[in-house]
Design brief:
By secondary structure, the protein is mainly α. The chain has one domain. It is built from 3 helices and no strands. The longest helix is centred in the N-terminal third of the chain and has 64 residues. The protein is rod-shaped, with a radius of gyration of 29 Å. It starts with a helix and ends with a helix. Keywords: Membrane, Transmembrane, Transmembrane helix. Pfam families: Phage_holin_3_6. This is Phage holin family protein. InterPro entries: Phage_holin_3_6.
Length: about 120
């Protein structure tokens, strides 16, 4: 019985030592996640902005090119149809994206390793 109490004390000491490490790892993981999220949001906004501007000017160029021809109306409707098709394809394509690996994987792995270590000690 005293051996079990001694092991439990030892495990408690290990757990208390590791709490600070867990908190530090959590703080670092949160900072990494925040920086990554900011970079992705800024990149996404820039890409979307220039993609939209590019599509608008491309459509205008097609319509202006066909302005003095009998195909002016067909060109305008064709550009509108292309925009709708691109939007549909982008929507369908975005549904299949997988989520990137979480930055909290390191914390989870550390907790699993320590739980395994504690099971082995007991």
């Amino acid at each position: 019985m005293f051996e079990t109490i001694k092991k439990a004390r030892h495990l408690a000491a290990i757990a208390l030592e590791r709490v600070d490490d867990y908190l530090e790892l959590l703080r670092i993981s949160l900072e990494i996640q925040g920086h990554s999220l900011k970079k992705r949001i800024i990149s996404f906004v820039i890409v979307v902005l220039f993609a939209v501007l590019g599509l608008i000017f491309f459509g205008l160029a097609i319509i202006v090119t066909c302005w003095d021809t009998p195909y002016r109306t067909a060109a305008a409707w064709g550009v509108a149809a292309c925009y709708a098709l691109i939007a549909f394809v982008a929507y369908i394509g975005s549904q299949d994206k997988t989520r990137p690996a979480s930055t909290f994987d390191a914390l989870r792995d550390e907790l699993r390793q320590d739980a395994k270590l504690m099971k082995d000690v007991v």
